[in-house]
Design brief:
mainly beta, three-stranded antiparallel sheet, 1 helix, binds zinc ion
Length: 66
């Protein structure tokens, strides 16, 4: 096992946990962001990280926007 940084490779924000979901027989990973908005409401959003077997590749996608 390797340790990974708990930051979403899609949006670069920290995520709360990783969730798995099956699509067409393949397991996909989703980074789930849980946070509270200004009114204190709990909000969660997901970013699809791609198929689980390609996850290590996906983690290397870090787009630089500067
Ligand atoms: Zn994200």
């Amino acid at each position: 096992m390797h340790t990974f940084i708990r930051a979403c490779p899609r949006c670069n924000r920290p995520y709360s946990y990783i969730e798995e979901g099956k699509v067409n027989g393949r397991t996909y990973l989703y980074a789930v962001h849980c946070y509270r908005d200004d009114l204190g409401r709990e909000i969660s959003s997901e970013c699809c990280l791609g198929p689980k077997d390609h996850y290590e590749h996906v983690t290397r996608i870090h787009e630089k926007k500067d």
